[in-house]
Amino acid sequence: MEVEVRYAETDQMGVVHHAVYPIWFELARTRLCEATGYHYSEIEKLGYRLMVTGIDIAYRRPARYGDTVEIRCRIARLGSRGLRFDYDILRGRDRLARGSTEHVWLEVDNNKVCRLPRPLAEPFRRVAGQDGTVSGVDP
Predict the structure, then answer these.
(1) Which residue in 24, 18, 7, 22 sits closest to 65, CA to CA?
(2) What is the CATH class of 2-128?
(3) Where do the domains of the chain lie?
């Protein structure tokens, strides 16, 4: 997906603040969830959440006010109770940042860790490329 850098996302030098990147990750992750056929709000209505348990970001080059950046997201690991999303933030051919987020599945009712929900297993495996089709999605 593409995002135009807004003034509010930058510091006094016009450079995107480091705290904005996790927000961009969330935008791309939500878009990737939609590729499973389930908007994230629908996943919650089914009774599940994806809780962030870790985040890693390597900043390489600054994004600046007025730039348009591309955020790529893919499912890098899909386990029985959790998953990892990997991200690349690009401006043209320049990689600005690379990162990942770790998540576990929770049941909404009790906030307890659970296994990959049965109705979501096939759609998430398909998007993760674990069924022999695609390997992630460039949103």
Answers:
(1) 7
(2) alpha beta
(3) 2-128
